[in-house]
Amino acid sequence: MQPIANDSARLVFDDALMKDCIDHLQLPFEEVNDALLQYHRVFITRYANSINFVSHLPGHARILELAAAPYGMTAALRYHLFENLELASFENPKGAGFSSVENERRIKISVHGRKYDLKETIFNAESDIWPYPNDSFDAIICCEMIEHMAFDPMQVFAEANRTLRSGGLFFVSTPNACCIQNLLKIVARQQPGLAQNYRLPKKHGRHLQKAQSRIN
Question: Which CATH superfamily includes the segment(s) 15-176?
Answer without folding.
Answer: Vaccinia Virus protein VP39 (3.40.50.150)
